[in-house]
Fold 2-isopropylmalate synthase.
Amino acid sequence: MTPTDVWNPQRPSGMPYHRYRPHHERVRVPVSERGWPAARIERAPLWVPVDLRDGNQALAEPMDPARKRRFFDLLVRVGYKEIEVGYPSASRTDFDFVRHLASADAGLPDDVTPVVFTAARPDLIERTFASIEGLPRAVVHLYVATSPVWREVVLGRDRDGVRRIVREAAELMARRAGDTPSVRFQFSPETFNLTEPDFVLELCDELTEFWDASPDRPVTHNLPATVEIATPNVYADQIEYIHRNLARRDSVILSVHPHNDRGTGVACAELAVLAGAQRVEGCLFGNGERTGNVDLVTLALNLYAQGVDPMVDLGDIDAVRETAEHCNRLPVHPRHPYAGDLVYTAFSGTHQDAISKGLAQHARTARESGVPEGEAPWAVPYLPIDPGDVGRSYEAVIRVNSQSGKGGVAYLLRTRAGLDLPERMRPDFARVVQEATDDSGAEATPKELEELFRATYLADGGVRPAVWSVHTDPSGAHRFVCTLDTGDRTADLEGTGSGPLTAFADALTGAGYTVEVLEVTDHPVDGGTAAYAECRVNGTAVWGAGVEASALAARVQAVVSAVNRAAAR
Ligand SMILES: CC(=O)SCCNC(=O)CCNC(=O)[C@H](O)C(C)(C)COP(=O)(O)OP(=O)(O)OC[C@H]1O[C@@H](n2cnc3c(N)ncnc32)[C@H](O)[C@@H]1OP(=O)(O)O
Ligand SMILES: CC(C)C(=O)C(=O)O
């Protein structure tokens, strides 16, 4: 046995992993300098949603015109300024949608530029230009796959052959656009991440030159991880290499288009921006081919959570999500970053404890510094952003089940039922909740928690002071006089003490209870007072509670509740 066998007992999987080649054997990235590891993202890149094209082409049921328009309006509302609106040569719906945007009554905002997508085929390019006639501005986006496997298997061309397709398409585009500045060009070497970097540079530089790009009319070179196959650092190296070596760099908008096959689309996009990308294409909530395009919502809110303006307004994330779900006919996962139903919810005890302490601290800090809670710096454990910032309420932040602890239970009782249990009482009620949720195996809603609290502490029990009064004599001593109903009989009792409760405890000795009041607190509630008392009853410490119209009645009731709970044990 080697030392490794001691701590790593894993054995060969038996799966045919040898069928796959690592990325570095397929593409060599000639990195000589690497700036991205130390870079920071200090401003948002230009986000370009491609939901209406790449997202749409991945749907079993592509969007109908009404859904397309609804999605487009959402994207405009959120604040996207360049939007890929379709593949007009591919379907009548897409063609008609672009024509619709070109019509006077479409209300295309002055600061929004539609992007239209085309393959490098003359008939498709012609149709694409026919679709944008009358649009005040547009980007025509040309794509051709460039990597060895796609060249050989799909296109049946070598590097020169692909260069010729690109060149001929570019010529036709330039002819159709004339020198109108309202049409700009975009090029995507599809499968960029699998392509030899020198070939990408060759194609991009040639187009920059041929289209005569300038800082006033830049060309967009968009470098897709069409199928994500390497770790994000590799993509970052690829992007940085192109960024450093592109010709006429100030006339090029360097864009990326990550997919998410390895589940690292977001990381690829972020590292690509560190590496020099200025524009990111993706889809809301990561819809798109296979495992999806990179998720633009996550990217924007990741920046937001770092104190960087995301330049899009996601303040009502549920409305954004509902529209995307409706248009795509696909649900967003409950655990989806920032937007899922459960992402601001804690079920587990220690998380709930930390969150409720954090929220209380946040409220205190805001109060003390005189700023609204929604403006105060955010530092609440387990919640990377304030749910309120994306339109989520705090109501669902803490939910109770059998894995919850006293902190979460107390938080819900306080915030949802107005009952602020003293710290030392919380474990007592948490045990009751634990038993109930262990039995049911289900979550306890705030309403159920309140009912459980009432059933545990406030229900009528064995003894009840039917009539009672407290008298204070001039020396300050208290006398408690009551008729105690014990269910099967009543007894007239009287006791004295330094306060009303000690006098009541003294009276209870007449009914056979030795009661010592150990701790009692109260606070106002709607229409009265809630009181909590810990009493030693016949030698056992027990908590009780009362909710009554007056503070004294609530305190007396809390002692009665403790006595009854002790008797029921
Ligand atoms: C990574 C991406 O997302 S790329 C975008 C993919 N999106 C779509 O395909 C959605 C819309 N597409 C369509 O509706 C259709 O594919 C159309 C209308 C564009 C073309 O349809 P068809 O003419 O029937 O061709 P088909 O769909 O079979 O595509 C295959 C052909 O396109 C060629 N092709 C693939 N990419 C390109 C390209 N970028 N430029 C030129 N030709 C291309 C293939 O080599 C193949 O040609 P071949 O038939 O000579 O072998
Ligand atoms: C062609 C580009 C933009 C694309 O959609 C991809 O590679 O996924």
About this structure: The chain has a mean pLDDT of 96. Residues 54, 57, 87, 90, 119-121, 124, 143-145, 154-155, 190, 226 surround acetyl coenzyme *A (ligand 1) (CB under 6 Å).
